[in-house]
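hey can u check if this looks right to u? its 185 residues, i copy pasted from the old doc so theres a chance i mangled smth
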Amino acid sequence: LLSRFDAFHEYIFLLAIGWCLGLSEAATFLGLSHEIGAFIAGVTVATSPISQYIASSLRPLRDFFLVLFFFSLGAGFHLDLLTEVLVPSLLMAVLVISLKPVVFHGLLRKLSESEPRSWEIGFRLGQISEFSLMIAFIASAESLISLNASHLIQATAILTFLLSSYIVVFRYPTPIAVSDRLRRD
């Protein structure tokens, strides 16, 4: 179907959005969340030869809704619970920042990646993903985890985002590196 509309890029854009919304709605009909349906829709489109075009044309929408998603997470974060989750989230963040790079380094070395490159990739992937925030948000909304557990995951994610960003900016090439030697596009 996607190849049939390949000549008309606007149709591909609309078809991709329709496919995402359709599978999202179908997932709720099957008792799953909208988010899982949208994820499945994305996976099915990923096998299409024009998936890169779809991804790049949907980027402005993705960024817009990502901003709204993080805003809604922040707006739902109860600062009065911060005292309860601060120490555990600090411990979890240090654990994640310490162990994830080691695990990725070990796995990538087994796949014959170079020593420096495997460490760099490990540190660049050293944070908890945004996907974990979505899962925690859904699990909390469905009462599968407590509000404290959700806040623990959110606080840990925020801390790992901050810590890993500083590690990358100070140690590895990036457009916003602190050192001129490391600043690259």
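The longest helix spans residues 82-110.
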